[in-house]
Task: structure prediction
Amino acid sequence: MVLESIKSYKDLMEMEYGDLKTLAQELREYIIETVAEKGGHLAPNLGVIELTIALLRVYDPRLDRIIWDVGHQSYPYKILTDRKDAFKSLRTCGGISGFPRMCESEYDCWGTGHASTSISAALGMAVSRDIKGENYKVVAVIGDGALTGGLAFEGLNNAGSSNSELLVILNDNEMSISENVGAIPKYLTEIITNPLYRKIKDEVWDVTGKLEVMAKPLRTMARKFQESIKNLIVPGMLFEELGFSYFGPIDGHNIKELERILDDIKDIKQPKILHIATHKGKGYKFAEDDAPKFHGIGAFDPETGEKTSTVKKKTYTEVFGEAMLEFAEKDDKLVAITAAMLLGTGLYKFSQKYPRRCFDVGIAEEHAVVFSAALANSGLNTVIAIYSTFLQRAFDQIIHDVALQKIPLTFAIDRAGIVGSDGPTHNGVFDLSYLRMIPNLVVAAPKDEDELRSLLHTALSWQESPFAIRYTRSYGTGITKYAEIRNLPPGTWEKISEGDDAVILACGSMVDISERALNQLKKDFSCELVNCRYIKPLDDKMLSELLSRFNRVITVEENTVLGGFGAAILEYAAKNKFNNKDILNIGITDEFVEHGSRDVILEKLMLDVNGVATQIKKFMKGN
Ligand SMILES: Cc1ncc(C[n+]2csc(CCOP(=O)(O)OP(=O)(O)O)c2C)c(N)n1
Result:
């Protein structure tokens, strides 16, 4: 086993190409085996194995800076930079993260998770190096999907005019999670597939290859010759015009070729971009055939490629996707927008059935929100389906474009709360806080599948202001037959059970958890439970009545307690002079929550049934 014999990335330098090929194969097997057991990003990692090997032969990760955009493709890098054994603990509590993290390893020079940040980070490092007179190389590896993000272009724009020495490697597999979308990817595909360009490039490259034994100045001359020809035939020369020297496209699975060009351009003292063509899922048939399914996947059987989970309940994502299909049948003005998360947000079937009414705008959350706002303002019933964590990118647009103008846009916010194995970059634990403070915005969280359907219906008929519905990355409560859709006017709560000792105000996923926690405690305490489906506006009437009746109040939410739902209750009590109330806010405290399965993390945070019961009990006993 070649992989087994490797003690450090430095060993790669001594290896022959034959052994490197074997190493690539063994890395593939190790990654497939681990992801099959733990879940994680598979297809993106299988596509960058050769690139990672070549990078580690040309650059020294202890000295140089290698930044992985999104970071979901950093598994081979982690394995080869001293985390071979630890990799077995991928994404588990206390184990290796699924993304690069500075706190995990000295080889991770930048933490990533959200797309399109790598070029900006690379430029910052390069500029700092030059100011401090240091000597290291900076490399950003970015996919064609991440390049659809506006932030990447802000980085390119700045870097291209800076003249700083840095290398951007564009890993082009023509895929985002699903097929990549937009004009830029089309432009890149043109470069990769244009036969005229390829022919001339290959011939020129052959010449440069033959010059390998000659002196470096000759190679540089040949490269300049190649560049001048490219200028004639590459349409647009977008990157050159942005101030980058463009190289490629080359085969991203040929270690020798990759290494040769990386070596060749390493010392060019300006911004440069190397365009490589790779196959997502390379070397694992099921992932090559269905890259979107294997982009990020739960545990699966490596022999069949089938998921091993046997849970029969539907996820909130599925319930949302089905409701959209159902509502669209009766409403031809219903349109849906996603920022590169067609599968993740449950909109795939909708996009197949209503291609003209579904818009994947790429990894472009800010654009997605403004675009959706304009659709909504023009009279279309518009739903933007987006993960809580990625909506953070569009904070300004929610305020400036949507809420300020009172545009009736519906936000379907998925992955709100603890996401589990993807960890702190992906947890959606801030949205109640960052949405609640925005005027004009309705903020809701369903307690179960029926309520999600009814809230979506209510949002679509609510024309007065924007409406946000947030739901967790989890299975629903297991409802098999849906109740009739109801209109749930904003600011109305629902009393679930009566009690005398205290009132529990719970929202979203925590209604069911609190109900079960109270069941555990019913011999000791009698608590009233309220489903606070609206976080904004609050049900003032009911809240005022409850605060008059109870001295002990417990709020429960799957969000940070800082500025979240519980904070809204504290504010209300203070403002309306409900003095001397004993209020406990249960939720996530002031910390970033680490990775691990959702169940394990909820248990650690004491937000599972036992944890909530323990917290309530302690409070009721006056501790
Ligand atoms: C801001 C942001 N939006 C959405 C995502 C979800 N996401 C993770 S990877 C990915 C696709 C990235 O495509 P690409 O950069 O081409 O890499 P590939 O997976 O194809 O290797 C998306 C949309 C994200 N990580 N960050």
Summary: The domain at 316-470 is CATH 3.40.50.970 (Rossmann fold). The chain has a mean pLDDT of 94.
